[in-house]
């Protein structure tokens, strides 16, 4: 297991370096000048040159990239503009702060949004999927199938805007979505996020229902499930101990990928509900040509996906003895 | 058991020069197909980025075989013995990792695609699964025409006429030219596969378990068809099967494989009536027989029950590979691999790879190694 | 004449599919006594596996319609409540399947899978169930059972998996064991071991066995009585000696003549049954075998097409064919003389 983890971590680091390099060089293919942004609206040529120098933009591209990489481990000084302690992912002149601090600031919002929604969609999705599979072909199954199809085709900005309008602004049933740190006030944390959770869950629940149902139906047709029935196991233990076990393998795989993607930034959800998470941060970084922030958000997103993939693969070993690692 | 006593002590008479030619010794010197020291190892790799070889599957581990024009050589053995791999090597669907394959006097072991072209037409293959070996989106006519088109062969009277002719030869209605494989039963599909193999007038057909997916009554239809083709068209067959009774029915000579090696090869009657290798004895005695009475004067057939299953071909036992399941195994068997030679008292072409061979009879004794049956 | 331990009377199983009603089993009757083995022989689609699943009530009631009578030790199983069936399965009547790899759960250890049947039906403790699993593994000849009990199925070889399946089926000492093609997926040397094992265990426990197979050789070696099925119906029934020694039904002749055998003369060609098995949606009228049969003309004009021959109701050797007994004996005599059938 340890060997597996070291090997995968090493692979992850290599992947991340490649991803950051690609992002870095792609950014410079786009015509935008960070120095001009750093310098301000009215910027005489000598100040612009100074800013260029401070940012290291007068260096060759490759040197800039290695300087950026080194900064992660050693920290970095930006001439007269300020110091960025390690781990330094760069200094954002748009936000006037080291990028790492901004990320730390925004991460809890996205994580809270993701975790809450994940609990909702995993629970409901898997449960309705199982119910549908056990009632395969009956009216209940058809109802579930149709409604999950509808849920699947809904869009967050559409449902989100409707919900905001009717539940918050028109009838004031719910508080306006906002982020309050969990450590400060758990109740306010939950109350502020409940609407985004539910809306984000609608789409994901539909997906998990469909996936659970089809996998479960397949599992119920497996020979070993028939064996379990042939040895007199009760209906419930056949479902829970045998069929569900196989279903979980598939669910866990997809769940890992989804979680990683969501941590990377639920851009539309955050924008719809005005939450200042990583998704918003990355969108703003794109529009502001804020390279350091953009690099950081891409890295966090990629890192999240990679980490969750490793976790899923490690979990496999527990769920399925056939892939148990030596 | 008494008979075996003196046999064990006789030093096996070396006869490797004659290896495998068998009853065909009197025939034209040049065999159609000649395998020598043929070997196929599949690497097992581990690691994601940097692959390293963790081991090798010794699927086929140095076998010598010959097939003469017009004859049928049966290849039997249990799963994992390498019989199917051998078939695929002969048809050059797999690249050998060692040894050589000679066809019609030419070395085709590592022949390129272009070099193989004229030979491909002459060596055809019939597969086990009549369901997956036919393209479901092509008509029967298209499937059988395929090989002719690829090889640019224009038979007199045109390809369509030839296809109809072939359909008739394999006992299908030529009117069914435009039907799709799914409209046919399993037996009929296997006939389509046979017709496709015949399209290029092959001289050698490698038939890999051609009837084992079929029901008994249908199986006989296909066996009879293949037998008729062999007789009328003079096609040589490498007939690969796990069913000893089918092989006996179809083959003039039979080779028994175990874990990538040939353990015994002989003409049909010698192999089935006078086998010498303990594994051949075990295989034959394991076949459930319908016959209620044994032939007069022979006594009941012997009953041999081995213990356990075939070992893994990744790490085959040293020396004789059968020794881990053999009741006669001694130290010598672990230390020294027995050569495939003609034993004293055996017919020409009957070769056995065993240090302590059995008496040449299949009757009258019990060897039960399975602890659950003891 | 008392009812046999398992008695199936006039069983029909229909499946409703999009293409129409599949008549998988049609008016089948059979009986098995304790301590004996009934071999059920037939080709694919003959209804032999469907019958086996029907006895244990393992068909999906939504798609399969059962009628007739299945009496196990005098108790009717058709229409029995689910909880009753669940208590019978694995305890009084158990089953083993063709492919031991897919039939064992990949997620649980062999010991767990054996033990849980025991716990389910006897209420034994975990420890007792584990001991019992080890005991069963020993009985079926698994080496080092105390270690192997914690293995997963993929760590077992094919033959050992089937042994584990047998151990699992026999853990509660069932009175009836249904073995559905138990050796078809196995190599011939392993098949011989497994068949001998089944026979040995039967001698010890007196279990009634229904052995479903397509291989007459397996039946000849393992069963006491034989039932030959064709297109969902029983066409011949009797002891092994009767059915294989003096076969009466043209389909049985066909099976015997089309089987290559080690003991048969090699110069006699196989004589296959012509054509292919019928669709179970449109079963031929009268005798379902008549389109493939060589002898309808001998039975009387149009009789085989028009009238369904019934399997004689009394026990013993019987067959469902319109030919007269004298005629059958005459034909068998010729076939044996021509060495197409070897006794």
UniProtKB/TrEMBL annotation, chain A:
Residues spanning the membrane: 12-30, 113-134, 146-167, 187-206, 242-268, 293-319
The UniProt entry's GO CC annotations, sorted and at most eight, read: plasma membrane
Assigned keywords, A-Z:
Cell membrane, Membrane, Transmembrane, Transmembrane helix, Transport
Question: Does the record bear Membrane in its keywords?
Answer: yes
| Keyword Lyase found | no
For this chain's UniProt record, which GO biological process terms are given?
transmembrane transport
Could you tell me which InterPro entries the record lists for this protein? Answer: BPD_transp_1_N (IPR045621), MetI-like (IPR000515), MetI-like_sf (IPR035906)
SUPFAM superfamilies per UniProt: MetI-like
Q: Report the residue ranges that make up the ABC transmembrane type-1 domain in this protein.
A: 107-312
Where, subcellularly, is it found? Cell membrane
Superkingdom as given in the UniProt entry? Bacteria
Task: Tell me any Pfam family this protein matches.
Answer: BPD_transp_1
- Topology of this chain in the membrane: Multi-pass membrane protein
Family from the record: Belongs to the binding-protein-dependent transport system permease family.
* Name this polypeptide is given: ABC transporter permease
The organism named in the record is Planobispora longispora
From TrEMBL, chain C:
Q: What PANTHER family has UniProt attached to this entry?
A: DIPEPTIDE TRANSPORT ATP-BINDING PROTEIN DPPD, OLIGOPEPTIDE TRANSPORT ATP-BINDING PROTEIN APPD
In its UniProt record, a GO molecular function of this protein is: ATP binding
Its name, as the record gives it, is Peptide ABC transporter ATP-binding protein
Q: Does the keyword Lipid metabolism apply?
A: no
The record ties this protein, via Gene3D superfamilies, to: P-loop containing nucleotide triphosphate hydrolases
Cellular component aspect of the GO annotation = plasma membrane
Q: Which SUPFAM superfamilies match?
A: P-loop containing nucleoside triphosphate hydrolases (SSF52540)
Family designation: Belongs to the ABC transporter superfamily.
Q: Where is the signal peptide?
A: none
Give the UniProt keywords, A-Z. Answer: ATP-binding, Cell membrane, Membrane, Nucleotide-binding, Transport
Q: Where does the protein end up?
A: Cell membrane
Provide a GO biological process annotation. Answer: peptide transport
Question: Which stretches are annotated as coiled coil?
Answer: none
Q: Is this entry keyworded rRNA-binding?
A: no
Checking CDD domains in the record gives: ABC_NikE_OppD_transporters
Instruction: Specify the ABC transporter domain's residue ranges.
Output: 6-256
Its placement in the membrane is given as: Peripheral membrane protein
């Amino acid at each position: 297991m340890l060997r597996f983890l070291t090997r995968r971590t090493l692979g992850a680091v290599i992947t991340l370096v490649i991803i950051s390099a690609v992002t870095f060089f792609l950014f410079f293919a786009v015509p935008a000048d960070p120095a001009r942004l750093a310098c301000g609206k009215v910027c005489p040529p000598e100040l612009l040159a100074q800013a260029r120098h401070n940012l290291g933009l007068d260096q060759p591209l490759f040197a800039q990239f290695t300087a950026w990489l080194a900064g992660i481990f050693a920290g970095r000084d930006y001439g007269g503009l300020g110091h960025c302690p390690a781990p330094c992912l760069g200094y954002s002149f748009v936000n006037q702060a080291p990028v790492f601090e901004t990320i730390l600031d925004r991460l809890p919002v996205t994580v809270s949004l993701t975790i809450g929604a994940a609990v909702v969609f995993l629970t409901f999705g898997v449960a309705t999927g199982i119910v549908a599979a056990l009632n395969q072909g009956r009216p209940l199954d058809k109802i579930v199938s149709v409604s999950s199809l509808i849920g699947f085709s809904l869009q967050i900005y559409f449902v989100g805007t409707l919900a905001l309008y009717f539940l918050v602004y028109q009838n004031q049933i719910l508080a306006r979505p906002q982020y309050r740190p969990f450590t400060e006030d758990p109740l306010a944390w939950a109350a502020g996020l409940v609407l985004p959770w539910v809306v984000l869950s609608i789409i994901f629940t539909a997906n998990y229902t469909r996936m659970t149902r089809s996998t479960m139906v397949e599992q119920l047709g497996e020979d070993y499930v028939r064996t379990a029935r042939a040895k007199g196991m009760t209906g419930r233990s056949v479902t829970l101990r045998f069929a569900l076990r196989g279903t979980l393998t598939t669910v866990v795989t997809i769940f890992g990928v989804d979680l990683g993607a969501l941590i990377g930034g639920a851009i539309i959800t955050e924008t719809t509900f005005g939450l200042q998470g990583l998704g918003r941060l990355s969108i703003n970084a794109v529009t502001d040509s804020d390279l350091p922030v953009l690099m950081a958000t891409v890295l966090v997103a990629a890192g999240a996906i990679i980490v969750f993939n490793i976790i899923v693969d490690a979990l496999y070993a527990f769920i399925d003895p056939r892939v148990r690692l030596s | 058991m008494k008979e075996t006593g003196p046999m064990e002590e006789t030093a096996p008479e070396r006869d490797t020069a004659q290896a495998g030619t068998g009853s065909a010794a009197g025939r034209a010197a040049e065999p159609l197909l000649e395998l020598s020291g043929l070997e196929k190892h599949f690497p097992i790799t581990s690691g994601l980025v940097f692959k390293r070889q963790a081991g090798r599957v010794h699927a086929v581990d140095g076998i010598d075989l010959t097939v003469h024009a017009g004859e049928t050589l049966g290849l039997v053995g249990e799963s994992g013995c390498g019989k199917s791999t051998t078939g695929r090597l002969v048809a050059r669907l797999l690249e050998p990792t060692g040894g050589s394959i000679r066809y019609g006097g030419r070395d085709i072991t590592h022949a390129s695609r272009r070099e193989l072209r004229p030979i491909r037409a002459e060596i055809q293959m019939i597969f086990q699964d009549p369901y997956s070996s036919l393209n479901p989106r092509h008509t029967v006519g298209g499937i059988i025409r395929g090989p002719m088109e690829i090889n640019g062969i224009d038979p007199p009277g045109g390809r369509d006429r030839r296809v109809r002719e072939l359909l008739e030869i394999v006992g299908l209605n030529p009117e069914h030219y435009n039907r799709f494989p799914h409209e046919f039963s399993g037996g009929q599909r296997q006939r389509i596969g046979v017709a496709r193999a015949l399209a290029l007038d092959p001289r050698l057909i490698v038939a890999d378990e051609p009837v084992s997916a079929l029901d008994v009554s249908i199986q006989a239809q296909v066996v009879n068809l293949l037998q008729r083709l062999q007789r009328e068209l003079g096609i040589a067959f490498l007939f690969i099967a796990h069913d000893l009774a089918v092989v006996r029915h179809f083959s003039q000579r039979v080779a028994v494989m175990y874990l990538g090696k040939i353990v015994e090869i002989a003409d049909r009657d010698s192999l089935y009536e006078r086998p010498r290798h303990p594994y051949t004895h075990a295989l034959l005695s394991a076949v459930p027989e319908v016959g209620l009475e044994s032939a007069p004067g022979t006594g009941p057939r012997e009953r041999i029950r081995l213990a356990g299953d075939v070992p893994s071909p990744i790490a085959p036992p040293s020396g004789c590979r059968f020794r881990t399941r053999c009741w006669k195994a001694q130290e010598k068997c672990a230390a020294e691999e027995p050569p495939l030679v003609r034993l004293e008292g055996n017919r020409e072409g009957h070769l056995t790879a065993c240090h302590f061979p059995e008496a040449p009879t299949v009757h009258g004794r019990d060897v039960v190694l399975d602890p659950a049956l003891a | 004449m008392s009812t046999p331990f398992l008695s199936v009377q006039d069983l029909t199983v229909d499946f409703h599919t999009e293409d129409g009603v599949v008549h998988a089993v049609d008016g089948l009757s059979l009986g098995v006594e304790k301590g004996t083995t009934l071999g059920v022989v037939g080709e694919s689609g003959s209804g032999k596996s469907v019958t086996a699943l029907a006895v244990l009530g393992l068909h999906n009631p939504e798609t399969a319609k059962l009628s007739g009578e299945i009496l196990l030790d005098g108790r009717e199983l058709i229409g029995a409540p689910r909880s009753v069936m669940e208590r019978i399965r694995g305890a009084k009547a158990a089953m083993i399947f063709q492919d031991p790899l897919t039939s064992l759960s990949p997620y649980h250890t062999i010991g767990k899978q054996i033990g849980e049947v025991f716990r389910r039906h006897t209420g034994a403790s975990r420890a007792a169930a584990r001991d019992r699993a080890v005991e069963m593994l020993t009985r079926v000849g698994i080496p080092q059972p105390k270690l192997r009990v914690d293995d997963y199925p993929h760590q077992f070889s094919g033959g050992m998996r089937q042994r584990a399946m047998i151990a699992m089926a026999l853990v509660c000492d069932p009175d009836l064991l249904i073995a559905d093609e138990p050796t078809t997926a196995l190599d011939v040397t392993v098949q011989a071991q497994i068949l001998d094992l089944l026979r040995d265990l039967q001698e010890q426990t007196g279990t009634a066995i229904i052995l479903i197979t397509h291989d007459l050789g397996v039946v000849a070696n393992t069963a006491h009585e034989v039932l030959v099925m064709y297109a969902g119906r029983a066409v011949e029934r009797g002891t092994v000696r009767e059915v294989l020694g003096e076969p009466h039904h043209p389909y049985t002749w066909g099976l015997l003549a089309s089987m290559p055998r080690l003991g048969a003369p090699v110069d006699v060609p196989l004589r296959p049954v012509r054509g292919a098995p019928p669709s179970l949606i449109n079963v031929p009228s009268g005798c379902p075998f008549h389109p493939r049969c060589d002898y309808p003309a001998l039975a009387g004009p149009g009789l085989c097409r028009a009238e369904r021959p019934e399997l004689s109701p009394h026990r013993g050797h019987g067959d469902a064919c319109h030919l007269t007994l004298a005629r059958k004996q005459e034909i068998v005599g010729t076939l044996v003389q021509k060495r197409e059938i070897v006794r």
